[in-house]
């Protein structure tokens, strides 16, 4: 039975969309040709250009998410849709549907929970120089803080096991959702893989929704929050080290003057130095306590993950599938 399930899994293609009317029809047709037995879901995120209608006419199952932001869409998709394998791609036509089979085969062959389609040449074709610089910066930051599992943490082309989709918290609201996915893998030490794929350019009339500075700041903030949640000892240890260093810099001349004259004329400076020293002690204590809490939370997440059946272990959603005609006419 396990071999049969691996050979014929129920695949759901997930396409989050916001104003992609220029490309969505071609994207759906591409995935329909590459994965004829898969269910193709388009989640419209308040589009104003007729994206939902074009997706419905192309034969996709169209649903909506009114909270603006890719993270909200991904959370809704993972919660609502039942499948054995989830394949997520953007609706802008930059990812090749022909690679879908390779992504799924990699997920099955390696018994992985997530396969990332790393974008070949993304640093050269990121659209704007700011995007390319941001890609390099944040990928380097991820590898420094959380490990070397991935070379492209912002790829929107990913395959997931049901185990991953149903146990991923998805607390992010925007484009930082890919960062959260990567850190979730680090946190639970999940089996993952990455394959390098070609990355296309947007066609004429299609525009990127990324804002270099706004989304860059949100991703940087997400890095800080995820480090606080997953590595609190390192996070608060850094805060403690900075506070202690500042305290030492302020304290040194006051102590020198006291040693020379026996007086402390700069009392405000001394008080500030002592306050910073106390902050460093408090931060270190908080980091030590929260590290134990974080380990406990990771253990609970791991137990919940282990309670989910692995890919191919038993029938999941296949027996509940409906006919293709019914699926294609379903709408939110």
TrEMBL record:
What residue ranges are annotated as transmembrane? 233-256, 268-290
Q: Which GO terms describe its molecular function?
A: transferase activity
Q: Which Pfam families match?
A: Glycos_transf_2
Under the heading InterPro entries, the entry gives: Glyco_trans_2-like, Glycosyltransferase_2, Nucleotide-diphossugar_trans
PANTHER family referenced in this protein's UniProt entry, alphabetically: RFBJ PROTEIN, UNDECAPRENYL-PHOSPHATE 4-DEOXY-4-FORMAMIDO-L-ARABINOSE TRANSFERASE-RELATED
Species: Gellertiella hungarica
Key words, A-Z: Membrane, Transferase, Transmembrane, Transmembrane helix
Listed name of the protein: Glycosyltransferase involved in cell wall biosynthesis
Looking at the record, the residues that make up the Glycosyltransferase 2-like domain are 13-165
Gene3D superfamilies under this entry? Spore Coat Polysaccharide Biosynthesis Protein SpsA, Chain A
């Amino acid at each position: 039975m396990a071999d049969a399930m691996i050979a014929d899994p129920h695949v759901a293609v997930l396409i989050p969309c916001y104003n992609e009317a220029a490309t969505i029809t071609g994207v759906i047709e591409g995935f329909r040709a590459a994965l004829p037995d898969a269910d193709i879901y388009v989640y419209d995120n308040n589009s104003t250009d007729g994206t939902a209608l074009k997706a419905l006419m192309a034969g996709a199952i169209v649903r909506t998410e009114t909270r603006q932001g890719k993270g909200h869409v991904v959370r809704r998709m993972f919660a609502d849709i039942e499948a054995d394998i989830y394949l997520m791609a953007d609706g802008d036509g930059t990812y090749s549907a022909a690679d879908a089979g390779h992504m799924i085969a990699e997920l099955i062959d390696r018994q992985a929970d997530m396969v990332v389609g790393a974008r070949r040449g993304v640093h050269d074709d990121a659209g704007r120089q700011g995007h390319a610089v941001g890609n390099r910066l944040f990928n380097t930051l991820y590898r420094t803080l959380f490990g070397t599992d991935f070379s492209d943490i912002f790829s929107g082309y990913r395959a997931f096991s049901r185990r991953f989709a149903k146990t991923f918290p998805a607390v992010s609201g925007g484009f930082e959702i890919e960062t959260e996915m990567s850190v979730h893998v680090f946190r639970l030490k999940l089996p993952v893989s990455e394959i390098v794929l070609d990355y296309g350019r947007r066609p004429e009339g299609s525009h990127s929704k990324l804002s270099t500075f706004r989304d860059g700041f949100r991703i940087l903030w997400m890095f800080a929050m995820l480090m606080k949640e997953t590595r609190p000892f390192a996070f608060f240890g850094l805060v403690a080290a900075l506070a202690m260093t500042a305290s030492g810099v302020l304290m040194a001349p006051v102590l020198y003057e006291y040693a020379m004259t026996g007086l402390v004329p700069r009392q405000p400076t001394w008080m500030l130095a002592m306050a910073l020293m106390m902050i460093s002690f408090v931060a270190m204590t908080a980091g030590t306590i929260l590290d134990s809490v974080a380990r406990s939370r990771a253990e609970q997440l791991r137990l919940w993950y282990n309670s989910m059946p692995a890919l191919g272990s038993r029938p999941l959603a296949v027996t509940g599938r409906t006919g293709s005609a019914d699926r294609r006419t379903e709408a939110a």
